[in-house]
Amino acid sequence: MNMTFKAELNGAAPDTDTPALKVENLRTQFFTDDGIVTAVDGVSFTVAQGEALGIVGESGSGKSVTALSLMRLLDEPARITAGEVHFQGKDVLAMNPEELRAVRGDRMAMVFQDPMTSLNPVLKIAKQLVETMVVHGRFTPEQAGKRAVGLLGRMGVTAPERAVESYPHQFSGGMRQRVMLALGMSNEPALLIADEPTTALDVTIQAQILDLIRELNRDFGTSVVLISHDLGVIARVCRRTIVMYGGEVVEEGLTEDLLADPRHPYTWALINAVPRIDEVRPSDRRLTTIEGQPPDPFDLPKGCRFAPRCPFRIEKCDSHPDLAEVAPGRKSRCWVTQAGTPLPKKQRHAKAEAEAKAKTEAKTEAKAATPRVIAGRDEAPLLSLRDVVKHFPLPKTGYFQPRRAVHAVDNVDLDVFRGETVGLVGESGCGKSTLARVVMRIHQPDSGEVVFAGQDIARSSQKQIRPLRRRLQMVFQDPYGSLNPRMTVGDMIAEPLRFHGITKTNAETQERVADLLNTVGLNPRVGRRYSYEFSGGQRQRISIARALAVEPDFIVADEPISALDVNIQAQIINLMLDLQEKYGLTYLFIAHDLAVVRHISDRVVVLYLGKVMEIAPADQLFDRPLHPYTRYLLSAVPIPDAVVERERGYLKLDGEPPSSIEPPSGCRFRTRCPLAKEICASVPPPLVEHAPGHVAACHFAGQLQ
Amino acid sequence: MTRYIVSRLGITIVMAVLATLVIFLIANTVPGDPVLAQLGDVAASNKEFVAEWRAKFGLDLPLWHRYLIFLYGLIHGDLGISIASQRPVLDDIVQFAPATLELATIGFVLALLVGIPLGIVAAVWRDTWVDHIARVVSLIGVSSPTFWLAFIMLAVFYGGLEIAPGPGQLDPIALAPDRVTGLLLIDTVIAGDWGTFRDAAAHLVLPSIVLAAATLGLITRTTRASMLESIQQDYVRVARAKGLRKSTIILGHVFPNALIPVVTLGGLAYAQLLSGAVMTETIFSWPGLGLYTFRSAAALDFPAIMGITLVVALVYLLINLMIDISYAYLDPRVMR
């Protein structure tokens, strides 16, 4: 333990029987012009000293407002209208502004979701760290300055002496979140509230930050309230969990029990809506989803708030249930489980069973495999990339400096066959979106071939490609930015129909638009409305309808679900699977959520700094990864199962990816790879086939233990 | 940092040379013959006389030749001879500029001293009576015409209440101090003449308020708007969660971020004030660049107009350079 961090603090030790935090019947309301919104409605929970509590829920469930209410950080029109928040035995809601200020950042600290905007851009890191230590009178400015360096080092910031003299824009998101954690821990608080601290980060960085929070909790006895929509994140850190829905706590229990045996239908739905990375792909890939939308905050249901969407609804649900004990240490706000009715268990493939299945599959695959290099199929691929390179030149820094470039995509070979789904994974900056745009010919590759349906489009003019656009469509990540706010939904879907001359008359167009809306699960009448009237999930359905309008063979989906809540994600995945079955679509599916990629993909491509590291059939890649980078990537993904999380040892990948402006020589992963030897720096490893259809670019493939 | 400043400086110099070309071309292509304007109807009808005048001022040479002469002169501090006053233009400008510099600077400082704090309090106590007052003040400042405001001020404080002195820089009976800098407030201090200092200061009050009004309105509005934008940023919530005092948050976190647009706008406003306020200077009989500009324009005095235009262009370039350099200190993201 770093000595600078464990400083001599003289804060009066609170007696150990009082919980660190006790919240009772908290109610927070927004007094908007349109009416009163009760965002948090009678929430109660306690956090014992040294305990880590998770709060789970979808957007709009009230979890973030709860977190902000704990420190009274909400502004008008939000007001805490009822309840009590006892922190170390003192009532936070009764504190005057000066008492409140003394607690904030001192005994009770908070880490926010977006590290990119949480630091003041015009102030040095040192100042931002020092002021919080000095204002609470625990340190002199000199002590605080030294301690800032120690804290940053403890949080894993490289070169902390230099880091404190830097400005926030000089850091990556992960590094900024470390600074935020250092800030939170600077006065050794008794309670750390972390609101979606890793949502904006890549999975390997997320793993590092979660480790850090766990260590702070374990080593310093800091109580933690961790808020997340991701059950895996909660499972990795928290002992106990509460689930929120419609502003209420609907379930509470030990994380382990809650995830293994949910006692509220909403928790049940949340758990079953997410695929698991440690699970072999079932034959029916459709995910369990619940219908409908989260409740309208202006018009909450009178009875159980989840009842309108609940598959287990009974008559009694028309009246509002209380949060009551359903088993020792377990509470649920549900008439069904309170009456003792168990919720159906989803069949999870046992590990041994899964491995056996995977082995037999591998054998049959091996037998059937033909000696083709990439995928082992006879037919010509629908899309074939050969040696594709795309660099983005940077502005020169001086007249005599050589021009530098971002090496976004380097020498990528990839085949995609008709009717399959190829998943493309990698951390941000690995070139996956660039590759998608090269395929769409939004970007022209610097060199290499892009053969689509037998035609090389790498050098084609936009005019030559235009007929192919009917067969090649894209669904974008941001459902808010990718729809024109000035066009009705119907016009947006009709536009490609008219442009490509698919429909001749107006009546025909309208009919086709209605058909398409039906296909993606929307009421055809919504065609007259504008996109702002729809939720994120509905907008993504509209995007898909627009892509489908021209009856394409091939759809590039660039993170189509990452902006959506888990249940909506599951709905969109199911829709994409249905459409694939119905129209024989081919997908190039880009995502950073590896569990989803495993679930939806036939084959998976792993990219790192613009290079292909590994390509393999999905189950093979996830169960028997050959490339060390793939191993690390998979290991970083938290699994929503507290038992598995506790028992599995996972590999830790330190540091951040190097710059793609000057990528490392030889193997690009070598700077972070424990297997790296001399040869890795001099000879770029070729993609070698190790098993049928399973290629990896590593000199020591499969050797990482 | 040095690299950034050097590159800004280089760009400024290139822009200054381009400005001389533009000024020269505009002055030579506008309609209106300076010779005819100067000679009067009778002499202008004498062709020989006109040709002689043209030759005297070099108006018969080709355009590029005249530009080179112009540039050569500029390098040697020669802006030509004013047709109207028959004195070197540079001498005229040196004589008129200090009065404007004095008035503009005091007006500008006044606008900053009132506008920035007013904008800050208006944003911090948004939609309270402070905010309403700030909004009314800035509305009056921005929307009241200068000539109207100047007359009202004179009528009320000079004519009616008789608590302010009349137009002009000094009382007619006051003795001007020896000219050192040309700035009366400084020259009187150098001369140790406190009576005249007070008189000069008193004469500055009304015109500088009139001049400050529009800038004040603009700065209050900009400060308020950019404070409001900064207050909503995530890092302000983080600062509150750190337990900082409200004053530290507002002045230490929000204001440095809000300052950037204020500096941009303030700099341009100052440049505008420096290039002479024709209306204010005319009404207050203020012997500054505004008055000189007005007279030169009326007389189609091309050398004088070109000289003034050049000075104005240089003032703008210089202030823009200062704004750019201040960005490097205010916003670390500017430096890569």
Structure explained in plain terms:
The complex is a heterodimer of chains A (705) and B (336). Chain A is 32% helix and 21% strand. In chain A, the strands form four sheets. An eight-stranded mixed β-sheet of chain A has the order 6-7-8-3-9-10-12-11, with helices on both faces. With 336 residues, chain B is mainly α. Helices cover 76% and strands 0% of the residues of chain B. Chain B has 14 helices and no strands. Chain B has helices at residues 2-29, 34-44, 47-56, 63-75, 89-124, 129-143, 146-160, 184-191, 194-231, 234-241, 246-274, 278-283, 289-298, 302-330. The chains are: A alpha/beta (705), B mainly alpha (336). Chains A and B meet through helix 2 and helix 3 of A and helix 10 and helix 11 of B.
Strand content of chain A: 15-25%
Summarize the largest interface: chains and residue counts. Answer: A-B, 27 and 21 residues
End-to-end distance of chain A: 28 Å
Poorly predicted spans of chain A: 1-15, 363-375
Oligomer: heterodimer
What's the number of extended β-strand segments of chain A? Answer: 24
Cα distance spanning the termini of chain B: 9 Å
Structural class of chain B: mainly alpha
- The helix/strand class of chain A is alpha/beta
Widest sheet of chain A: strand order? 6-7-8-3-9-10-12-11
Shape of chain A: globular
Tell me roughly what share of residues is in helical segments of chain B: over 70%
Order of helices and strands of chain B: HHHHHHHHHHHHHH
